[in-house]
Design a protein that fits this description.
262 residues; alpha+beta; Alpha-Beta Plaits; 27% strand; globular
Length: 262
């Protein structure tokens, strides 16, 4: 039986989602927890592979489980065996056609860029010192990134991903008292794409460049751009993943918050 879970994590103490030969990964820790209550544990497949120190407010993954535990019991088991920096919040019983990775049609990220680094935000906000960061130039340049484009210039070079066409459906920049907040929603993202967009918008602000500089960067389709820099990982949060309604509508589900109310 296939199950889909929604979960959150603090990425500070991880090398990223994907398990590797060395280092503590989110996938490794979650599969170890699954093995504690599943007689034949397999791979947990996530909607996306976040990097080291990147966080998730709403990540999704699927796995196979053939035991007798109910969904409520599975949630409780994950809560028992997972460390405090990972929390499973909801579970669905889904069909075998649902892949957490390949059926996701939209993902949303938030980036928090702090105006100052403090002992209390250093793990949950990016900070780029010595640059003149202003809201309006970043907002104007961000508008040029909306829509469907070849984002080769904004993704880290990866020969295994030949398709670099993405459609950004939302890209907003807001200013709070202590930080700039970037919201990005798209059908798909290239590796490091959100962080490289943030770094580029910051550079456009600092160097007082015309917002149409974005058009030139896009047209060059080259990841080796002087103006395209990668913002720090700590400020990035995966905030939502969308799946076709027909794959989830009517499916049995259970929330951790509902269990607590019982």
């Amino acid at each position: 039986m296939r199950y889909l879970i929604k979960f959150a994590y603090d990425g500070t103490g991880f090398i990223g989602w994907q398990k590797q030969k060395e280092g503590r990964s989110i996938q490794q820790v979650m599969e170890a927890a699954l093995a504690e209550f599943c007689s034949s544990p397999g791979t947990i497949v996530a909607a996306g592979r976040t990097d080291a120190r990147v966080h998730a407010l709403a990540q999704y993954a699927h796995f196979e489980y053939e035991g007798k535990m109910t969904m409520a019991q599975i949630l409780k088991a994950f809560r028992r065996w997972l460390p405090d920096d990972i929390k499973v919040e909801q579970i669905w019983q889904v069909g075998p056609e649902l892949s957490a990775r390949y059926q996701a049609y939209e993902r949303s990220y938030r980036y928090i860029l702090s105006k100052d680094r403090t002992p209390f935000n250093r793990n949950f906000a990016g900070f780029i010192p010595h640059l003149k960061i202003r809201l309006q130039p970043m907002q104007q340049a961000a508008l040029r990134l909306l829509g469907k484009h070849d984002f080769s210039s904004f993704g880290r070079l990866n020969p295994e991903v030949p398709n670099h066409i993405c459609e950004i459906k939302e890209l907003s920049v807001a200013e709070a008292e202590e930080a700039f907040i970037f919201q990005v929603r798209a059908d798909r993202f290239l590796h490091n794409m959100v962080r490289r967009i943030v770094g580029t918008l910051v550079n456009i602000s600092h160097f007082d460049l015309n917002p149409d500089t974005i058009a030139r960067i896009l047209a060059e389709c080259c990841p080796r751009q002087n103006l395209v820099t990668t913002a720090p990982a700590e400020g990035l949060f995966l905030v939502d993943v969308k799946y076709p309604a027909e794959l989830l509508d009517g499916r049995a589900t259970c929330k951790l918050s509902d269990i607590r109310k019982r």
